[in-house]
Amino acid sequence: MDMSGMPVLLVITETKLKEKKAIVRSFLTSHYRICSGNDKAVMPWSAIIQIQDNFVARKYLPVDVALKEPSKLQNWDTTALLNFWYALQESGEIQTFLFKAWKNKDGDMVTSVVSDKSLSHLTWNIRKKQRVIVKNPWDYLLTARSNTHHTEEDADDDSADGRPPQRDPEG
After folding, report:
1. Is the model's pLDDT at 132 over the cut of 60?
2. Nearest one of 1, 27, 123, 2 to 84, comparing CA atoms
3. Gap between the Cα atoms of 70 and 80, Å rounded
4. Cβ atoms within 10 A of the Cβ of 24, count?
5. Are 82 and 9 in contact (CB under 8 A)?
6. Contact present, 1 and 33 (Cβ < 8 Å)
7. 3-state SS, residue 16
8. Alpha helix positions (H), the chain
């Protein structure tokens, strides 16, 4: 985790598939918990698979990779996700990953408590220099919540990104 409690990725060149899947699971779960403001929130994998675009802006995913429960990911999907997120992290230009909404216990979609607009560019530069590296993917669980809260709706939708709509995972 970095100084603000956001997950940080390492280079994965020598990482085995099982470990990559564990990193993806922990990374996404950590971000989901940050999004909900609940450090015990459970990932609704089936809902995310069905309506992924309601949960995640396309700018946070490689073009040809759809999210699925990590144990179902193939090596190339897992590698593509981790390399994409790592490149975003290292660029420092935008947040590495953010969920735009989460599903509450009543099944309602709720806007994230944080957004990339709630953190300034200066904050990203500082955070990039002050990372706390997690060496063991099994320890990559959320231990601190972000204190940054957000009240305005996330305006970064996929069409604003200029990215194509997500492909159908079944097709």
Report:
1. no
2. 27
3. 13
4. 25
5. yes
6. no
7. coil
8. 17-36, 45-50, 52-55, 75-91, 121-129, 158-161
What does pTM read for this prediction? Answer: 0.68
Given its phi and psi angles, is residue 24 left (phi above 0), alpha (psi -120 to 50 degrees) or beta? alpha
Q: What's the angle, vertex CA 116, arms to CA 146 and CA 52, rounded to 5?
A: 95
Contact criterion met (CB below 8 Å) for 9 and 89: yes
Q: How far apart are CA 111 and CA 90, in angstroms?
A: 27
Taking the C-alpha atoms of residue 101 and residue 36, their distance in angstroms, rounded to an integer, is 8
**Distance in angstroms (rounded) separating the CA atoms of residues 122 and 156:** 20
Q: State the residue for tokens 């993806």.
A: 24
Q: What is the pLDDT of residue 153?
A: 37
SS3 content of the chain, % helix, strand, coil (to 5): 40, 5, 50
Angle at 73 between CA 160 and CA 60, to 5 degrees: 20
